[in-house]
Amino acid sequence: MGRSLLPDERLRRAVHLKNRLIVNLLGEFFGTFVFIFIGLCVSMQYVLGRQALSTFIQVNFGWGLALGFCVYLLTGSSGGHLNPAVSFCFFTLGRLPFHHLVLYTVVQTIGAFLSAFCAYFYYFDQFEKFAGGERSVTGPFATAGAFTSFPDAHVSHVTCFVDQIVGTACLTFFITVFTDKRNKIPSGIVALLVVLFALNLGYPINPARDFGPRLFACLVYGREVFSYSSYYFWIPMVAPFIGGPLGGWLYHIFVGVHIPYDIDDEDRPETAAV
């Protein structure tokens, strides 16, 4: 008499996907959803708790840990990009086809949008208590910052643009360090870097993370989430696509291309990814 299958193995046999692109897209969607949902809940606890339940640095570490755990979650599928700028970096390095890049960006943004929807209703009663039903982007009862980035009045667009380039470049620089198998470093460690670039804007450095929740916030707060600060919203959507490949190529130019392969290195790239 044969051994009966465990429930998870029966499920695997019933719904296991063999198409690697679909597997990767499903992973990027779900991983981004989980990552942003946890991160937004951390931010909402900070905002709705009137900064009494956690500190700014704890919020940063909360986002960093969420990112690290979700990168590990997708180690066996897409690798855990969770960020269109990271996907674009890998595209410029020949590690991701263009049509995969487009699809990754779409599912990452949808995942971020849905995470904002779920986080909002998860803390809906707290939003009601905080401002008595009022939803505002600015002022003493402002809560829109729990969803997406809004610079202080004294922070210029130039500063914001440079901030997003530098922050994203540092992120992808170390992602390429950790994903270069010759270095033999766990890739999830890079998530802790987000705590270093939070003062100016928080740490969008991720077009999906900023735009998806902003789009949902527009349904709650109105068009001001886009018009705020002379239409600042486009900066975290554009600048990371500059910083992403910049960081990856800086690593390879100054370090990566100079590291020798082992004689029997099976990971030696021979052709571009397909």
TrEMBL record:
Cellular component terms (Gene Ontology): basolateral plasma membrane
Assigned keywords, A-Z: Membrane, Transmembrane, Transmembrane helix, Transport
Lineage: Eukaryota, Metazoa, Ecdysozoa, Nematoda, Chromadorea
Major localisation: membrane
Protein topology in the membrane: Multi-pass membrane protein
GO molecular function, one term: glycerol channel activity
Xref: CDD domains: MIP
Source organism per UniProt: Mesorhabditis belari
Pfam family, one: MIP
Protein location: Membrane
Transmembrane segment boundaries: 21-46, 52-74, 101-123, 155-178, 185-205, 231-251
Name of the protein: Aquaporin
Family: Belongs to the MIP/aquaporin (TC 1.A.8) family.
Function: Aquaglyceroporin that may modulate the water content and osmolytes during anhydrobiosis.
